[in-house]
Design goal:
Number of helices: 1
Helix content: over 70%
Mean pLDDT: 94
Number of domains: 1
Distance between the termini: 38 Å
Length: 26
């Protein structure tokens, strides 16, 4: 259960980082 939570958190973090990079290099 905790593993799933960590995985979700990591996915969300990667998604946020990708969005920031996209905005910076637009």
């Amino acid at each position: 259960m905790s593993s799933f939570r960590i995985l979700t958190k990591r996915m969300l973090w990667i998604k946020t980082m990708a969005t920031l990079v996209r905005l910076l290099f637009k």
